[in-house]
Amino acid sequence: MVLLFGASAMSNWACQPNNKYAHIKGKILTGNNKRGHLLREGKFTKPTQTNYFDVVIVGSGIAALSAARKLQQNNITNFTILELDDTIGGNAINGKNEVSAYPWAAHYLPIPNLDDKELLNFLQEHQIITKIDEKGIPNYNEEYVCAEPEERLFINGYWQDGLIPNIGISSEEKKEIDAFFALIKTYKSAIGNDGKPAFTIPNFYSTTDSAYTDLDNISFYDFLKQKGFKTKALFWYLNYCVSDDYGTNLNDASAWSGIHYFAARKGVSGNTEGDTVLTWPEGNAFLAQKLASTLQTHIQKNKLVFEIIPNQQQVEVNYHCFEANTTKQIIAKKVIVCAPQFVNKRIVKNYPEIKNSPFTYSPWMVANLTVNAYTEGTEGQPMSWDNVIFGSNSLGYVNASHQLLQTQKPQQVFTFYLPLNSKTPKEAREEAYEKTYEQWLDIIFEELKQAHPSLVNHVTKIDIKVWGHSMIRPTVGLRKHLKNPIFNEGKNQNIFFAHSDLSGISIFEEAFFQGNKAASQVIKTLANA
Amino acid sequence: MDNEPKTPKPPMGSPMLLLVSIFIVATCGLIYELVAGTAASYLLGDSVTQFSTIIGVYLFSMGIGSYVSKFFSKNLLAWFVQIEILVGLVGGFSSLVLFALFAQVDYFQLVLYVLVSLTGILVGLEIPLLMRILEGRYEFKDLVSKVFTFDYIGALLASIIFPIWLVPKLGLMRTSFFFGMLNIGVAYWVCYKFKNEIAWAKSLFSLATMSFIGLIIAFINANNLVNWTESTLFQEKIIYTKSTPYQRIVLTANNNQYKLYLNGNLQFNSADEYRYHEALVHPAMQQASSKKQVLVLGGGDGLAVRELLKYPDIDSITLVDLDQGMTELFSHNSMLKSLNNNSLTNPKVTVKNMDAFLWLKANNKLYDVIIVDFPDPSNFSVGKLYSNVFYSYLINALQNYGVCVVQSTSPYVARKSFWCINHTMQSVGFKTIPYHNYVPSFGEWGYILALKNKTFKAPQNFDSSFKFITKNVFEQMLVFPKDMDSVYTEVNKLNNQVLVHYFDEDWKHYQQ
Known about the structure:
Chain A has helices spanning 2-15, 33-41, 62-73, 117-125, 171-189, 210-213, 220-226, 232-246, 255-263, 285-291, 341-347, 352-355, 425-434, 437-448, 479-482, 508-528, and strands at 28-29, 50-58, 79-82, 94-96, 101-103, 108-110, 129-132, 138-140, 151-155, 158-161, 277-279, 299-300, 303-310, 315-321, 326-337, 361-372, 379-380, 386-389, 397-399, 411-419, 459-472, 495-497. Chain A is α/β, with parallel strands linked by helices and 529 residues long. Chain A has a domain at 33-92 and 282-358 and 475-528: FAD/NAD(P)-binding domain, CATH 3.50.50. Chain A is globular. Chain A starts with a helix and ends with a helix. Mean pLDDT of chain A is 92; it is low at 1-17. Chain B has a seven-stranded mixed sheet, sandwiched between helices. In chain B, strands 1-2-3-4 form a four-stranded antiparallel sheet. The radius of gyration of chain B is 30 Å and the shape is elongated. Chain B has 512 residues and is of the alpha/beta class. Classes of the chains: A alpha/beta (529), B alpha/beta (512).
């Protein structure tokens, strides 16, 4: 006992230098990283049991859940969903505390384009769209539309309305920003020589006209330089935008993806602005739960699929069960593989094409801060949904509590997003896994210091999540690999792939599209069989 | 003289110093009386009654003190020093005690008169003891003449500087702290002068020092104790302030008028609030076909509930107000309870301290009448409570044929804001009847009466006991002059908050 006491006293003493954070509770949450890494070691036993299904869906992210919804709507019910983690949703997962629910990654859906009918149907099924008028214009549930005030940017000591730099910048910078948006306007309405839009979502439906697709062969940074842009305000803003949607910087993102960010969204709504977003305290976990609302009996959690073997007539799926610590097998007629390609290259046998494609993924750090209400005395627009600091590497923070209906919020949860995009993904990932909790806190407070110098005194809890591979990076030249038939018509009519990385862009709409596309192929080939 | 002392006591040195100390003691005594009278007038109103009863009780208590003085036979000097310290403490802290306890205790008058009596008794002891101390050191006729001359001069000085200089410049609290220090100064002087005759002079010294330090600290921090700047800002006497987790409540009093401010915005003035609350409540109640179940959202002051309780056919009233600090204050403070007629403690009334939006969304009970009395939409938080989403929950909480009314800011100052509320309520299916009246403290004020599946019938039966509203008056309230008449506005939504923008613009124009 004396020894134990002595040891704990010592450890307390050893912690003294870090006591500036003594009042902050929380930790780094370890997700499925460790489970996933078992694939590298590859030490799995032989399956002890075999089951039979018409369809197996590997993964339970948005693409997987969308595929399952589609199967169910087409009366295919003999399917199962195998999820590695103990929660569903993939990038659309959330946490919750006594103050608010909060997202761990994806957290909003822009008002969709009118021709994305499948998505509009899904939103209407769950009363996210309340009605669609005779002209086909949807009305959205206003509790889910991002509430005012939506966005603010801390620039030159002032919180301005909106994120496009405006307060205290030079007229030259303003002119460049205007010129950039004038250029975007032409891309937004541009039509390719095949009659398809130059930019749209899902991007599968955009033109193959090389006048536009060639933009994928040059970086966004080089494109901007070629067009003669040079001011800091514009470059910071555009770097912020590609970091936000893709986790990449201006040099790595292709010009095609950079323009796509601005030119592909053409949402229309009867009761809100078309350029706003739908959002919830828990982020896109709200949508994942809606997708999963009729799938509960099909979902198996804590199952690591380590081998998918295509045979002539069927597919063998071998998986490890974490709870029972056993290995099992499913023989399925069809498999929809909804894992990202960096996983698939290890588990799908006889598909060397995956290994040879240049898929890279951006690492991120996401932190959720529980904060007591306080006023910092800075002027300008009050607390908004999205709060960004000009010049910062981080994306600032989103107030997860913003959509809560209550008028007074003595405490709030801020979700802080930091894309780790200043080094190669591999270097950044390894560095991120090494960082201690206190080192992350130093980074968070340093990033927010300008706008919130006394924030540290008002935070009661911070939980941190490091995403090693969170988003496909739309790097220069990626798009030609997406055309590979194995990801489209399928090389083998029993295995289909569905993941947003196959769209080259990690957004809800693309994952939803990929899931629906693969499910349609399954439905068609099952009917033919 | 029959009872000439057997051994003559040594003279006191300079008689001037002696006279100065009598003068100080006398001034302090009167100041405490004035402080108590003024504080009671601020807090309870009706200054004639307050001053008259307090002077009476104070003088009577001084009489008790004089009577009791004969029981002090030994160590008169030590007793005198101790009494001076006590007077300094009790008198010095009297105004702080009164202001601090006003909102906290149910029987404030009891506290007030106990404090006045205590001060009176202690002050009543001073002069008789002092005279007995000086007995034998001066000739008796000189003694009586000098003591009373300076006693009355002190009283004159106190009564002149108190209203002219002390209250306006120092404020009530600092005044009483300051005179408390003077009393303790006299204690010091006596201690010093007679250190050889007082057995425990040293401990009395330290007692006086501690008390003096306490009063100095209180004097320096008086700004925090009664927020000095706010008192100048409000131009009125602040009698109560409280910062709850949600807002700052400030209650002021002036010329028998009480005003309640929430975050600096006037909520009511007791002199004319009946005009506002009658106009808010009675037109809706006259429209209602059934009045059994009534809901009040906001209105934590209980004044709308007071009007509602005039209808005996009400079975229950549910009041939802976020701030417990507010509803507790208006449930327990005797002065405020007399304003709202004890409405919040009425058995028909249930108070829920919850966020109105969340409460309404979770609610599944239907009400016959709903009274909505929120602060003006001056920020994004409150703006939500005037949104179409809020009103769609509101209409769903009403019985078919139900009636509700919403306080809707000034149609004169904030014309766009007023009509925006009207249009927003119409957008969710209410039939609206906008009306307005004049409330001197607010100016022209507006309300939206809103009906669910029901047609409007001009009300006939306003009770004759009402102080403001009649059938004819209400008919006039429905007429909007050209400068307040309907203008185009957008619908206020959670995702545009146009009302907050309108409200900002409207008031900016008005202030310029």
